[in-house]
Amino acid sequence: MWKRLKKQAKTSRFNAEKVFLASAQPLQEAYNYFKTHPYGLDREDVDIRLKIYGGNEIANEKPTHPLILFIRAFINPFIGVLMVLAIISMIIDVILADSAEQDWTSVIVITTMVMLSAILKFSQEWKSTRASEALRKMVTNTASVYRNGATQSQEVDMKMLVPGDVIYLSAGDMIPADVRIIECKDLFVSQSSLTGESNAVEKHTIIQEDTTKRGSVIDLDNICFMGSNVISGYAKAIVIQTGNDTYLGTLAKTITGIRAQTAFDKGVNNVSFLLIRFMIVMVPFVFLVNGITKGDWFDAFLFAISIAVGLTPEMLPMIVTANLSKGAVTMAKKKTIVKNLNSIQNFGAMNILCTDKTGTLTRDQIVLEKHLCVDGSNDIDERVLRHAYFNSYFQTGLRNLIDRAILSHVEELKLHYAKDNYKKVDEIPFDFVRRRLSVIIEDKTGKRQIITKGAIEEMLSICSHVEFKGQICDFSEDLKIEALKVCKELNYEGMRVLAVAQKSWVTKDHDFAVEDENGMVLIGFLAFLDPPKPSTVDAIEKLHKHGVEVKVLSGDNEAVVKTICRQVGIDTTYSLNGLDVEKLTDNELKDKLEATTIFSKLTPMQKTRIIKLLQEEGNTVGFLGDGINDAAALRQSDVGISVENAVDIAKESADIILLEKDLMVLEDGVIEGRKTFGNIMKYIKMTASSNFGNMFSVMAASAFLPFLPMLPIHLLVQNLLYDISQTTIPFDTMDSEYLRTPRKWDASDLKKFMLYIGPISSIFDILTFALLWYVFAYNSPDSQAFFQSGWFVEGLLSQTLIVHMIRTRKIPFIQSNASWPVTSLTFFIMGIGVILPFTGIGSSIGLVPLPWSYFPWLIAILIAYCVLTQLVKQWYIKRFDGWL
Predict the structure, then answer these.
(1) Residues tagged active-site
(2) Is there a contact between 798 and 862 (Cβ–Cβ < 8 Å)?
(3) Residues 405-438, buried b or exposed e (16+ Cβ, 10 A)?
(4) What pLDDT sits at residue 452?
(5) Which end of the chain is more exposed for a tag (fewer CB within 10 A), N or C?
(6) In whole angstroms, what separates CA 103 from the centre of its chain?
(7) Closest residue by Cα to residue 727 from 116, 16, 154, 253
(8) Over 50: is that where the pLDDT of 12 sits?
(9) How far apart are the C-alpha atoms of 521 and 450, rounded to whole Å?
């Protein structure tokens, strides 16, 4: 058998014919066909099949191999130009030169620069990849599997599933592989990730007649596919294909790594394209001017190429990646796992947080506080409690906090023995439309009854009778008003209320459905208390201080939601419920969204609609949810936030996972997101403004000087040193004022910034030209090395100082200091720039020692540069009300 399986594994990938055959097998022969047993595989079988089929993973999702990353580090314009210059230098200075005149200096220097640049980029990306992978591994999805003959399923990592495993599925579960349904009850599955259809599809144990004619494998009624998820009901199924052999595996190349571009992504690209457009215009101009005025077209070509390198933001990808990975690692230390690195900047831009009530505002420790009769009296004989207990104990769907609270309360009262006198006949699982759940049980005398519990309005709609003060009577309008009054009083005390009903002497034997939930007898209410967290009030205040408005999107009763919100300091003046939302058009709802802070009795699609309309109004919206009903809203939001113990589909849909379901953790994430965004913006504005300024300086020098203002190698070394000085920006601090408000990309602001700040450096470059030309008389080709060395030093120091000038809207070194890594590295690079002309390395690339009398002038120029930049900065902030 194992040889045959191994042969199949070698030739397999997704095989539609194989799935059709699996679907067509009779139920009684299914276990034999798949070489398994009703209670699963044993350990030996699992180990062998893991060796044959491999882990249940999509290969395309594996991290990039370090060797590939290292090779990619050499693929960028900066490296390309350096390599061209190295080859040209090798040909001219070594190959074509006489043996006595061979000069390896330029080749060695340029090759060293290439290796340093590539290694720097590789180390950042490799560190980012490892950090991201480590964070993803902290969030695992599991599957309920029967193994080793056990009658109870056990949770195992989805990656460890193999063909032949027998699994159990319930509401909220992701389908962990391609599976054949063996047993199921009211099983509805969402296949939207595979088909794009939003409506749930019902699955069965055998093929229905109407689906055999469709011919599509995805329409098979008794097959569920990896990537889909269970909306309601439960099932027992056999795994038929895993990993790359699944239907999802065939789509992996088209879905892995593809995501919609955010405004920030587009903004970063716009910066690159803007500078490249400048480069396209400027490089030919510089080439022609220098070729015509200097007569050496080869040197003019090399100089123009070097200018192109200087204008290219070659470090931008590395800086962005380093910022995001550093932010993710920092957030992980604060119990926040970032699945999608790019979501960090959206976290910082978030100005509205939509959240559920339970477990976020409250302690997530629901306690059954009261069980009452319909008239509001205490359930003295515990009849209401017993029926609620049977409903929670015998149901096999998603066991939520409500069920756990009921079971726990019964255990405390030592009434759990009551279940021993009953057996389960069937159940009608919970769904988010009916908002109720029914079980059908039978006692030892053969008496069969339906027991239903659920939300008040939905329960009242199926009850024709009521047990009132010990008597069963018709459920009149007056009694309904009386019952609703009891519920409202409990709601105003902050309690969540569910109703319990039953119908006795049921004659039906099997195949119970929603239609059987009628003619019920309402017998009482359950009141649950989930008190607010002590930290919630402080957390909401801090979020408000940081410009994040909190809106509550809950499926709970309006009175309960309002009570909890009042207790935690959320304004309850304006609220809407699900019925209100349904009646309003999109435009009408938009008009109400800004003022409304509380939304109650919402369906999953209504949550998604509200988030979408908030986004259309220009807001960056985060959504915090942990249930199956939150999956669509998590996907729609700019930042999907879930928790570690959420249902599988919620964790899969989220960008960020909280290890603690606490708004205090969110506040830390918001601040870190803004720090990350701010540090990226620092680099973008530094690069854009300095490159824009250099454009004017080079154009002026090229037009009026009889020699090149700097050699190509000088420009390349200067550019590399400047880029290195910026590599510690991800570790810089941000001013507290910057962190107080949400931050969003604004491309128009960047253009203004370039136009007003960039030319400042050109003013002082031209002053340096005048100083070198007139004061020091470096105005002939014989003294060009001194001129080039002088501008090299001034250009590098002014560029590096701009790091400190732009990183804060305050006065640098006085009102705001950079972090020690930034300060140390920038001054270290400035020191190298000053010393380099006096060294052998500097001499080898054409730099010469400068007279000491030049440095007082240099200090004066740099001080004047900083002062003017600060004055323009203050004017710019007042004029445009912004900086970074």
Answers:
(1) 356
(2) yes
(3) bbbebbeeeeeeeebeebeebbbbbbbbebbbbb
(4) 96
(5) N
(6) 52
(7) 116
(8) no
(9) 10
DSSP result, 295-329:
--HHHHHHHHHHHHHHHS-TTHHHHHHHHHHHHHH
State the CB neighbour count (10 A cutoff) for residue 862. 16
- What pLDDT does residue 238 have? 93
β-strands 448-455, 463-468 pairing: unpaired
Q: Which pTM value belongs to this model?
A: 0.71
Q: Alpha helices of 12-98 — where are they, by DSSP H?
A: 16-24, 30-33, 43-53, 66-72, 77-89
Cβ neighbours, 10 Å, residue 610: 25
Residue with tokens 């029926």: 387
How high is the pLDDT of residue 30? 86
pLDDT digits (tens, 9 = 90+) for 635-670: 888 888 887 767 666 777 788 888 777 777 888 888
What whole-number distance in Å separates Cα of residue 308 and Cα of residue 277? 11
Q: What region, left, alpha or beta, does residue 12 occupy, with left being phi > 0 and alpha being psi -120 to 50 degrees? A: beta
Mean pLDDT of the chain: 83
- Sequence-ordered alpha helix ranges (H) in 728-813: 747-770, 784-806
In terms of Cα–Cα distance, which of 810, 780, 826 is closest to 874? 810
Q: How confident is the model over 738-767, as pLDDT tens digits?
A: 888 888 777 667 778 888 898 898 899 999
Statement: residue 258 has pLDDT above 50: no
| Rg of the Cα atoms in the chain | 35
> d(Cα 615, Cα 349) in Å, to the nearest integer?
12
What DSSP string runs through 492-543? HTTEEEEEEEEE-S----S---GGG--SEEEEEEEEEE-PBPTTHHHHHHHH
